[in-house]
Amino acid sequence: MDYLESGACGQYIFLMRQRRIIIILSVIITIFISESYAQRSSAFRIARLKYDGGGDWYNDPLEEPTLLKFIRQHTNIDVDPNYYFVDIMSDDIFAYPFIFMTGHGNINFTDQQAKRLRKYLENGGFLYADDDYGMDKAFRREIKKVFPDKDLVELPFSYGLYHCVYGFPNGVPKIHKHNGLPPQGFGIILNGRLVVYYTYESNPSDGWDPPEVHHDPESKRLEALEFGTNLVYWALTH
Q1: Minimal CA–CA distance to 85: which of 106, 65, 103, 99?
Q2: Which listed site, 1, 26, 143, 215, has its alpha carbon 20 to 30 Å from 55?
Q3: What's the pTM value of the predicted model, to 2 decimals?
């Protein structure tokens, strides 16, 4: 009887020790995951905006990672140089301080999507839209749904965005020819803060791609990457 009781007691102690080890390991794993997530989430990320309407919102997915790697090399901004995309109606949109949209075709925001995008922008978010050739008419129409009380206004060359890290005395640089018209940068300012920035006849984002994609001269790629750095810095500090 004593032997049986002793055996049962030993088994109980063994099971309790196992349980304690499992709990300790679980705590360690939880801490590790939390710290890893905190480190990852503290790094600056860009999300590509997924939109309806048929336009190719997804084109050239190497643009953002290439820009972010350049920023990591030339500034002290902590970045996550991976490609992310986000749907307007997803709660994930609020996890990104900077969203980027581009394309060659149509865009369509439902009323609900327009309200959601406005909420994101009113709560500290920033939208950079780059006409990749062919989205100008659709973008102007749809952004008016988001801000019916605001107009896209061309920013003067003296605007701080053009001078904050690298100097662009003539405003947004001309990266791709398109229709051969002068490049323009437009904005929507809300309560003194630039919340939407739109480039037309310029296409800086194509200059963010690796050189073999568009075969841009290195000087143009550098200009585009430096301009993208200004965009990110401005969005983070204003």
Answers
A1: 99
A2: 215
A3: 0.83
Determine the 3-state secondary structure of 212 from DSSP: helix
Same domain, 213 and 193: yes
Task: Please say whether the beta carbons of 48 and 130 come within 8 A.
Answer: no
Which residue range forms the structural domain that includes residue 74?
44-237
Same domain, 62 and 173: yes
When divided into structural domains, the chain yields a total of 2
Residue carrying structure tokens 């939208």: 127
List, for residues 197-214, the tens digit of each pLDDT value.
999 999 999 999 999 999
The 3-state DSSP class for residue 52 equals: strand
29 shares its domain with 60: no
Determine the Cα–Cα distance for residues 137 and 76; give it in Å rounded to an integer. Answer: 37
Residues 26 and 112 in one domain: no
Q: For residue 107, what is the domain's CATH number?
A: 3.40.50.12140
What's residue 144's pLDDT?
A: 98
Query: Using alpha carbons only, what angle is made at residue 122 by residues 119 and 127, rounded to the nearest 5 degrees?
Result: 90
User: Helices (H), strands (E): how many in the chain?
Assistant: 6, 7
Angle value at C-alpha 75, between 71 and 81, nearest 5 degrees = 30
Comparing 5-9, 80-84, 159-163, 167-171, which segment has the lowest mean pLDDT?
A: 5-9
How would you classify residue 89: left for phi > 0, otherwise alpha for psi between -120 and 50, otherwise beta?
A: alpha
